[in-house]
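assembly run, all chains below
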Amino acid sequence: MQTLSDDEDLIRAAQSGDMASLEILLDRHHDRIRAVCARVVGNHADADDAAQMALISIVRNLERYDGRAKFTTWSYRIATNAAIDELRKHKRRPTSSLDDEDQHFEPVALGNMADATAARLDVNDGLDQLPEEFRMPVILRDLCGLDYDQIAEVLEIAPGTVRSRIARGRGKLADLIGSISPDGNQDATGGVQGTDHDH
Amino acid sequence: MTTEFDDELLSAVLDGEADPQTVAAVQADPDAARRLAALEAASALVATPPAPATPERRAASIAAALAAAQPAPEVSSLSVARERKTAAAAPRRRQVNWLAVAAAFAFVLISAVVITGIVGSNSADVVDTAADASDDAADAVEEVAEAAEESLSADSATMAESATADEAMEEAMDDEEAMEGDAMEEEAMEEDAMETEDSDRETAATTTTTQRLSAEPFATNNLLLLEEAIDLGVVVPVLRPTDPELLSVVNPECLNPELPPDIDQFAFAELGEFAPPPQLVVVQFDPFDPSQVILIFDAEDCTPVG
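ok done. output:
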């Protein structure tokens, strides 16, 4: 007997007006949508707002979803759009101290020396120093685990461009990690200045 | 670094996208291996999952999305959509109303000063100045309203937490009923405005009471109001790139041939309702995310608008 277990079943039922299926679908995908929003906008309050807007957008457009793209790919596209919208909206309004508190350190459990330095770098601070065109592919690759073709579909750019942008984004982050001294401070010459690795 | 391998190649190795020979060569090169480790650390940093939403906030987001699944009335307009948006944000309404009252009062006051100025002098310069002042006043009203909306958006989470989807819908319906009287009053004002052909923005916004969610052009006075209508969901994609209705007015060369042919992604709009002939424009939406506008362009010469 087939159960309402996979996304396609849930989507079909939701498109037919089954609210219970819609709720399961949203519940199932909320966390990954919210995660990508969090990494794009860099703080929890805006991430929650962006995730909510993404879910609403998914609901409003679900009728048009025809299954040609995977639901996860489709919904990542909506999530990244919502997060970028939120980011731009946020840039237009003053940052409150609460937002600063949100930028808390998120510990990274990693092994070697380079990773130990990486652990001193706040993820959001690091990503915040990347241009948007580098940040998005890196997030979709490293956080969401999408392959180059899927990222190309989400961002509407060529797979070759995805590959080079991921490399440049990671390269800049690696340089930033390299500029962090063992006591956790950033070298005066550090940051994401152009290096040999920039192309 | 002296390695012959650049970040793009090393990154491809990291992602399993490089051939075995390249992988072996990278592993044999100490500099390349070191850089690969640095890239891997950067990748692992980004892969760290962010802290999740609180259970309350998570539930509120899902409830808000479920509430959005409720069917909306077929016929809409800017004024109705604005009312609906206000109704959906019921708990924050009190603040909106105070600001709206203040804005309206300011507008009336400024208009009175302007009219007094006109009556006091017949010179054309004064009339021009008065018209400019009137536009400025309308702008000020819009800015106040926008500021009110922005200041209130922060409260949306609280609103979502405090009401279930059903309660929110019920409240919205009650609000719509309560607003019917106001709407009739507004319509009477709109008729007066049309008679005098006053083209200020607020008037234009409230004279679009018969727009429908169809391929009919959405008629409005300017781009700002069109963008608001898009934002409020009054203008939505209703045409496909192959629709004869679209091709009859738009040069096909303006349409990217790679657009998916069977997805609604365009809408028409007429700008300059009170300044004929209106400019027919095409709103192009993202075919995979119809809430996003890619471009608004002139239907005749395809130049971007705005």
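Chain B touches chain A through 54 residues (CB under 8 Å).

Residues 165-196 of chain B form the longest helix (32 residues).

not gonna interpret more than that til we talk
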